[in-house]
Write a structure and sequence with these properties.
The structure is a homodimer. Chain A is α/β, with parallel strands linked by helices. The first copy, chain A, has 5 helices and 13 strands. The radius of gyration of chain A is 17 Å and the shape is globular.
Chain lengths: ~230, ~230
């Protein structure tokens, strides 16, 4: 008798609001993942930089080794506890003498399924609006990453990676049906591009696209757009 | 003394309404191109199928050889008369035993600069909404086409070609600054994708994108969306 596999599943995006206290950031993220799972989510994503304020000044202070740091250990235990596929948004990762913007993914058994380092660093200068240079502090990843679930294959990107249709097309060609981009667009790029890019990636590649943002904090040095969303290709 | 080249130019999109009378379609298109030129347009585009109603039943009746047919001869003379770069939307082209959806471009001297045959035929079946199968009658082109002006290089696509970021990316890689897509989206794909795709191609490739549609005719068998537009990458 063949195993019956459900054709649908519930994906939750956790739009948490990281502050300066890492322990509290992890606690709040965990509470929200538990809430999502208790409401039936089988796959949960956290946003970019869920354990740290977003900003180049913060990355050296908040970075950790992966998987042997507090944040990643928490993700593994939380995935196992909630029996979810947990897409760990991103954290600043310390690896050798470099810092990466890194997403790790854990399965319902707590095992790590993927480690993705942001490929396209966010170096932007819109005069009078916003200037931000991730590459001052971060190093770029080198490798696209997918992971499998019983429903379909997922492709991973982080934030500015969504600006590049080539990465999404590569995942489509590898058979991904869902692309997940933890992100933190801002008050300039958010209204200009956030929804546009999510819809474009979905229509271009005929995949579901999930953009999971941190919440907006107008007192932060970098004010995020928020507006987490999932787009259907249809 | 170096020749001074203007950094800006005026591009006009002619949103004409082709009916069943080919002679009148050509006359009306010519009037509108003259009007655009008299208002300062230096580059003018006509829409897809500007000499014919849009529909597989019409293509065999309205098709012509290019450049030795009435429609293409008119385009050449009109470009010379108005001293414009004239992007001839598209017409059904008879070539050997096949029919193509073909755009020809003429320079201000009346010489042909490009011949582009639609690469991605529009075969669509949205149950209860719209079914259309260009490939019942048309053959696909095989080659992207660009042309040069004193301002920049242009890339050509027709309608459904805009759904494919790879073609736009190829033109971007070849140095195009403007992509022109004569088109005729319909009342299903128009609201869903017309503006989205124009904006996506512009943001993805950092180029200007022009979508030139026929006008809406609610009595036609194929009702076009209209909404010609030009999108800035900024």
């Amino acid at each position: 008798m063949a195993t019956k596999v459900a054709q649908t599943f519930r994906l939750a995006l956790v739009q948490c609001l990281p502050g300066s206290n890492k322990v509290k950031n992890l606690q709040r993220a965990a509470e929200m993942v538990r809430e999502a799972a208790s409401n039936g989510a089988q796959v949960v994503s956290l946003p970019e930089c869920f354990n740290s304020p977003y900003g180049t000044r913060y990355f050296p202070e908040y970075c950790e080794p992966v998987p042997d740091g507090d944040s990643t250990r928490m993700l593994s235990e939380l995935a196992k506890e909630t029996k979810t596929y947990l897409i760990g948004g991103s954290i600043p990762e310390k690896y050798q003498d470099k810092i990466y913007n890194t997403c790790s993914v854990f399965g319902p058994d707590g095992n790590q399924l993927a480690l993705y380092r942001k490929l396209h660093l966010f170096d932007i200068d819109v005069p009078g609006k916003i200037k931000f240079t991730e590459s001052d502090v971060l190093s770029p990843g080198q490798t696209p990453q997918t992971f499998d679930t019983e429903w379909c294959k997922f492709g991973l990107g982080i934030c500015y990676d969504a600006r590049f249709p080539e990465l999404a097309g590569l995942y489509r060609n590898r058979g991904c049906k869902v692309l997940v981009y933890p992100g933190a667009f801002n008050m300039t790029t958010g209204p200009a591009h956030w929804e546009l890019l999510a819809r474009a990636r979905s229509v271009d590649c005929q995949v579901y696209t999930a953009f999971c943002s941190v919440a907006r904090d107008e007192s932060a040095t970098y004010v995020a757009w928020g507006h987490s969303l999932i787009v259907s290709p249809w």
